[in-house]
Write a structure and sequence with these properties.
By secondary structure, this protein is α/β, with parallel strands linked by helices. It folds into two domains: 147 residues, Rossmann fold (3-Layer(aba) Sandwich); 116 residues, Rossmann fold, CATH 3.40.50. The protein has eleven helices and ten strands. This is Glutamate racemase.
Length: 290
């Protein structure tokens, strides 16, 4: 395998974050909170969103192109802020960029779920590709072999999140319909007690999801645990930025910067100025996936 050459990282370099669109901004929020002094470059591959309905080969190709584009921006770490890409492309990217820390959201989410569960009955809701790949199921069972894991594809939630439909009776009815297979009545000891939000879009629906599943079910969002893992990895590699001022934010998109800014208001805790979003073409970047 021949991948793009990676240079040794420097402490003042940025952390590169990528997603298929805007959902990864929930991870960017967590990184901003955990590492306020770090420079961050976010790439949303909005021209090819969603990744959740694409084949593994396509997702791997898109991910390698995204990281190749970020690598040109002087980065010291890569965060895959997309569950689908984490499931399908993490190992590939780690092989391509052995000199850089490359982290996804699957393992931190699995660790958080195993810590949260009381009855070892864990549900995972995600896109079709992520559930079919069984990345969460494998990660959770690798940590807790005795766990019972149910996964349900809820791709419709992505559209709800991006349109800002986060609350209301209709939203809760849609959520209830999608989750009905995993919320079927069981004996008390078998009932679902933990639910992993296995797509970075889903935290915006967390209040509505919580009302549907009930107080007995603990929701797990991997964003905070991913940010903690990034901080730990950078500290271990002596790559934490020592600057005392707030880090700089840069935004790159592959299509529709105006729509990105509009939809981003549903995901990001800070206002994004349209002039700060750069339109880039990443498809010309080398890709090793054939």
């Amino acid at each position: 395998m021949i991948c793009a050459e990676a240079k040794a990282a420097e402490v003042d370099a940025a952390i590169g974050v990528f997603d298929s669109g805007v959902g990864g901004l929930t991870v960017l929020n967590a990184l901003r909170e955990a590492l306020p002094n770090e420079n961050l470059v976010y790439l949303g591959d909005t021209a090819r969103v969603p990744y959740g309905t694409k084949s593994a080969v396509s997702v791997m190709r898109y991910a390698e192109q995204a990281v190749s584009a970020l690598q040109a921006r002087h980065i010291k770490a890569i965060v895959i802020a997309c569950n689908t890409a984490s499931a399908m492309a993490l190992e590939h990217l780690q092989a391509c960029y052995p000199m850089l820390p490359v982290l996804g959201v699957i393992e931190p989410g699995a660790i958080a779920a195993c810590k949260a569960t009381r009855r070892k009955h864990i549900g995972v809701i995600a896109t079709e590709s992520t559930t079919n790949n069984q990345a969460y199921q494998k990660a959770i069972l690798g940590l807790m072999p005795e766990a019972r894991v149910q996964a349900q594809a809820c791709s419709l939630f992505v559209a709800l999140a991006e349109e800002g439909w986060h609350e209301g009776t209709l939203v809760e009815q849609i959520i209830a319909k999608c989750l009905s297979p995993m919320l079927e009545r069981h004996s008390p000891e078998e009932q679902l007690d933990t639910l992993v939000l296995g797509c970075t879009h889903f935290p915006t629906l967390s209040q509505a999801i919580a009302r549907v599943v009930g107080k007995e079910v603990q929701l797990v969002d991997s964003a905070a645990t991913t940010a903690a893992a990034v901080k730990e990895r950078l500290a271990a590699a002596a790559l934490l930025n020592p600057q005392k001022t707030s880090g700089q934010l840069s935004f790159l998109v592959t299509d529709g910067p105006d729509r990105f800014v509009r939809v981003a208001n549903n995901f990001f805790n800070e206002e994004i100025a349209a002039a700060s979003v750069e339109l880039v073409d990443i498809q010309h970047h080398s890709s090793v996936v054939k």
